[in-house]
């Protein structure tokens, strides 16, 4: 049997795939192959089906077949010599009934302690560490790049992840008994804690869902349900079949492959390098699951021809790829980059929960979680928060729509733009975009739903004191989750922000996304209301549409009453 080491390295994952039958180094792992769509299984009957097809409903089974998961087979390599494995591989590679064959490798975490930094890991004990969770903030001190502005999201109903389910997929369970973490609502695989993979998972979960309890850390989506799963394609399919639509899976692993021709260092690549994983992830996304994965720590250009288009947009599964930045918003030296990377976040010195490696401590915290491993749960939790708000409002958003909003409203990277790592999530801007696009142009009136409002909703007020029709955005609620009276003098109060009826050209066209503008349309004689949804590079807007439609800057709402 080929022995697989699961010892934790500071740098991430190991695993390999033959680039051709002439590959000189033999990777560890089972042989996986996919037969052609019309092939006869009896002609390639060496293996067993890779994916279980039990208890799958008809709708999911149609998708299962469409993607071709029913055509994957696996040959176990346990007990086989290296020569036997190579012979089987080469035989399958030459078989015309085989669409694809590969040897899967082992997986390790996508964590990376920067090797050119001499700072030692600092373990902290129980106290309030939220002041140094810079990823929670909008702006940060001392030149540190912006966070995801989770604190603004927490002001919205659903903004703490109340409606979200998150599953952290790592090859060892997190420390369920940590004082600041929740017990999992679902587990798949061996959940016995180990100090290698398990502590890596403990750190990821702390960023996402550690509790808001006055001590320790506070997760970005701290009201979400948290689950754990081991790393496997079968687990991905099982979760896709069982989780509710809109759930989020964060996958914190990567492969190491042989790529000496393009890199002299560790060749660490995203999970979708293996096509069986790519197809399983596609199944999850098409089943309505938000799938977020680390882009890997190889410092590689994923657009390089060496990768044979596996990370091209034309084979995009809909998953979110996450790169890593340094503390100033520049691509970290170890992060993979390329056109397929969607988002990025902090890749060094992130404060979160830990079991202290082999200490198995219930009350330890670390200041040095790093790599695409630490960036990935920041993005995954941000996705879960946006999805939770979408669910709160009753919007039917898809993973594609959530990803688009997260990416398009994010903050641009600094530094070398030839190394694309996407944008850093900006939850406040993402939420505003979500509410703008999915609220169906509905204005509410005072008293709607027994005054149980949703932060961000727009209300119309027929002001009896001045005869004007005024528009307010709900920005606060009382302890009973209800709002109270509008201001009568076009001002703001604890509950309401006066949106007014701004006119085109006010403030030299320097607008604020979400403001409502009035347009006396000379082409049809109507008085129309538009919401500002876009700005140019100079932070200014441009002309209204004249036909009650939308454009880059404006969203038509309704005619003013």
Description:
With 561 residues, the protein is α/β, with parallel strands linked by helices. It folds into three domains: 31-103, no CATH class; 120-437, Rossmann fold; 440-559, Double Stranded RNA Binding Domain (2-Layer Sandwich). The protein is 19% helix and 19% strand. The protein has a seven-stranded parallel β-sheet, sandwiched between helices. Strands 2-3-1-4 form a four-stranded antiparallel β-sheet, with helices on one face. A four-stranded mixed β-sheet has the order 20-21-22-23, with no helix packed on it. The longest helix is centred in the C-terminal third of the chain and has 21 residues, at 372-392. It starts with 30 loop residues before the first strand and ends with a strand. 47% of the residues are buried. Mean pLDDT is 85; it is low at 1-26 and 112-120.
Structural class: alpha/beta
Q: Strand content of the residues, in percent?
A: 15-25%
Return the CATH architecture of the largest domain: 3-Layer(aba) Sandwich
Sketch the major β-sheet. 7 strands, parallel
* Residue runs with pLDDT of under 50 for 5 or more positions: 1-26, 112-120
> How confident overall, as mean pLDDT?
85
Report the span from N to C terminus: 77 Å
Largest beta sheet: what is the strand line-up? 8-9-7-10-13-14-15
């Amino acid at each position: 049997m080929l022995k697989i080491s699961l010892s934790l390295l500071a740098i991430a994952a190991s695993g390999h795939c033959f680039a051709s039958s002439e590959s000189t180094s033999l990777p560890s792992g089972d042989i996986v192959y996919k037969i052609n769509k019309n092939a006869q299984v009896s002609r390639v009957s060496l293996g067993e089906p890779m994916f279980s097809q039990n208890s799958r409903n008809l709708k999911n089974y149609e998708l299962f077949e469409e993607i071709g998961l029913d055509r994957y087979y696996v040959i176990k390599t346990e007990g086989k010599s290296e020569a036997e494995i190579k012979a089987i591989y080469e035989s399958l590679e030459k078989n015309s009934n085989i669409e694809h064959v590969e040897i899967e490798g082992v997986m390790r975490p996508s964590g990376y302690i920067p090797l050119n930094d001499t700072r030692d890991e600092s373990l902290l004990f129980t106290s309030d560490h939220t002041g140094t969770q810079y990823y929670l903030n909008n702006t940060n001190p001392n030149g540190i790049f912006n966070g995801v502005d989770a604190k603004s999201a927490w002001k919205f109903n659903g903004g703490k992840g109340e409606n979200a389910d998150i599953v952290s997929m790592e090859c060892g369970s997190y420390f369920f008994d940590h004082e600041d973490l929740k017990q999992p609502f679902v587990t798949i695989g061996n959940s016995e804690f180990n100090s290698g993979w398990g502590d890596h998972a403990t750190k990821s979960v702390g960023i996402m869902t550690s509790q808001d309890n006055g001590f320790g850390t506070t997760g970005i989506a701290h009201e979400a349900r948290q689950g754990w799963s081991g790393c496997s394609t079968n687990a991905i399919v099982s979760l896709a079949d069982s989780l509710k639509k809109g759930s989020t899976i964060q996958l914190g692993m990567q492969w190491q492959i042989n790529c000496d021709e393009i890199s002299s260092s560790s060749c660490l690549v995203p999970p979708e390098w293996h096509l069986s994983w790519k197809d399983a992830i596609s199944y999850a996304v098409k089943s309505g699951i938000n799938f977020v994965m680390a882009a890997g720590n190889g410092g590689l250009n994923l657009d390089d021809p060496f990768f044979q288009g596996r990370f091209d947009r034309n084979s995009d599964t809909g998953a979110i790829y996450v790169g890593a930045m340094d503390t100033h918003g520049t691509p970290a030296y170890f992060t993979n980059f390329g056109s397929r990377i969607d988002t990025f976040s902090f890749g060094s010195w992130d404060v979160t929960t830990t079991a202290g490696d082999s200490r198995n401590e219930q009350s330890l915290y670390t200041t040095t979680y790093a790599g695409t491993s630490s960036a990935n749960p920041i993005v995954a939790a941000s996705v879960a928060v946006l999805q939770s708000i979408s669910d709160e409002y009753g919007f039917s958003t898809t993973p594609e729509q959530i990803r688009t909003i997260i990416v398009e409203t994010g903050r641009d990277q600094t530094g070398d733009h030839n190394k694309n790592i996407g944008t850093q999530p900006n939850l406040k801007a993402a939420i505003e975009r979500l509410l703008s696009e999915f609220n169906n142009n509905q204005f509410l009136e005072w008293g709607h739903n027994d005054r149980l409002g949703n932060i961000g909703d727009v209300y119309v007020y027929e002001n009896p004191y001045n005869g004007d029709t005024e528009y307010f955005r709900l920005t606060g609620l009382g302890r009973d989750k209800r709002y109270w009276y509008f201001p009568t003098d076009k001002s703001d109060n604890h509950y309401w922000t006066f949106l007014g009826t701004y006119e085109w050209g006010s403030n030299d066209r320097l607008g604020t996304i979400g403001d409502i503008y009035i347009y006396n349309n000379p082409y049809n004689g109507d008085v129309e209301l538009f919401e500002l949804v876009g700005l140019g590079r100079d932070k200014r807007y441009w002309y209204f549409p004249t036909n009650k439609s939308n454009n880059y800057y404006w969203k038509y709402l309704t005619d003013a009453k």
